[in-house]
Amino acid sequence: MSLTLYDSMTRSKRPFDPVTPGHAGLYFCGPTVYSEPHLGHARGPVVFDVLRNWLEHLGYTVRLVSNVTDVGHLVDDADDGEDKLAARAALERLEPMEVAEKYFWAYFDAMAKLGVRRPSVVPRATGHIPEQIALVEDLLRAGLAYERGGNVYFDVSAWSDYGVLSGRDPDALLEGTRVETRSDKDDPRDFALWKRADGGHIMRWASPWGEGFPGWHLECSVMSTKYLGDEFDVHGGGLDLIFPHHECEIAQAQGAGKPFARTWLHWNMLTLGGEKMSKSKGHVVELAALFESTAPDVVRFHLLRSHYRSVSDFGEDALAASEGGLRRLRDAYRVAQEVAGDAVPDGGYAADARDAFDAAMNDDLATPQAIAALFDLARDVNRDAADLTPERAADAADALRTRLGGVLGVSPVGDAASEGSAAQERFEGLVAMVLEARAAARERRDFGAADALRDRLEALGIEVEDTPDGPRVRVHGG
Questions:
Q1: Which of 358, 389, 388, 390 is nearest to 373 (CA)?
Q2: Which of 46, 97, 275, 387 is most buried, by CB atoms within 10 Å?
């Protein structure tokens, strides 16, 4: 079975058919680096990291490109207003590039903790101003754009395919729009390619239309094709980017004669306790804060337990379930490793799990079903542990290592420090439960049961000393 991906353009699953056989060119819209990275930043990079891993597993050479927006993204994603970088710079009393540099590294540090590999190319908008100006000039020459007082706009009425991705009717976009609110536009549907830098606007560059800065949509059309070619395989982003961002990207690129992306892949939103995340309402979780309570590999595993086109909720119970599930897979891997020793896999014991995993991944990256196949394998390992030959155990360990670790990007071993901390918490919780049962026995004057519980603990190297302040516990023998 070959890889199929759901294409937002055709609203159907389509076979992956690369422009260049054996090679895959991927692009997804990266962050606007003006604040601390939050949970909403995590899903896209994890999805494309897994897509990259799977394509490499299938034998493709992959080039993954993801941009960084460090200019041109205006507040509320509008064509007027304040640049998000400039607004943050004023708030923190820093230069805009200081803000961009600070949060650029914060973002990639967080992605590294999630096990996301760096893209092959990470272009910044400010590093590609000449190319963006050149694309605007191409659109002007093609009669698809016009200049008004230093602002350049794309003429939506001149591009009949506008709306092809989102399914929106360009004429319907006029409803409820007041032309006078965009007085320099010929049509309120038109979007900015280049904006005039007024007054004290700090981020500005010389252009044929005066000093200004590029529109937000422009950079992705330019940088994706610069590093992947005029036609490439997959372009991705969140569902909220379909309109207007991706719709505008298509109009710009194809208006300049570039075939652009073959497949459009969009991931769904994340929720917190069932409620949609909203940065404006403060209903977000910064990744640094999340990592204090939840190991990054658990966060990644939890993201993959939902299909990328489904909503993924980050409630406490859901996270705890993912942590427990990952622990079961790692426990099975440890058992398999211990039995296997240096044995060579027999290639048969985990065959069904491999086939089910691979079929799920080829079916539009169905990671929940792929993980279910690994759970089935873990169940088999635990059931057969006493009878496993080293070769069969080695086959199970190999399947978990290559699929859970190599494809899904979640180590089957785990971080020693976090694993040790979790084990310590479980140990302390069990001891506390025994002490509570002993205290209850003493309270009802069942001293025989209380002494029996104390003796069981001592047999395990856990000494209990009764003091006026309550029982004191000492652990002997490590």
A1: 358
A2: 46
Same domain for 250 and 363, yes or no, is no
pLDDT digits (tens, 9 = 90+) for 214-262: 998 999 999 999 999 999 999 999 999 999 999 999 999 999 999 999 9
The reply to whether 328 falls in a domain is: yes
Cα 167 from chain centre: 26
- Among residues 39, 28, 27, the alpha carbon closest in space to that of 111 is found at 39
**pTM (predicted TM-score):** 0.84
282 in a structural domain: no
CB 41 within 8 A of CB 249: no
Q: Give the domain range for residue 359.
A: 287-407
**What is the C-alpha separation between 126 and 101, in angstroms, rounded?**
12
In a domain, 70, yes or no: yes
**CB proximity list for 390: less than 8 A, separation 6 or greater:** 339, 340, 341, 343
Residue 122 sits in the same domain as residue 154: yes
Q: Are residues 314 and 461 in the same domain?
A: no
Residue 151: beta bridge partners?
A: 148
Strand ranges in 435-476 using DSSP code E only, listed in sequence order: 462-467, 470-475
CA distances from 166 to 220, 241, 423 (A): 17, 10, 49
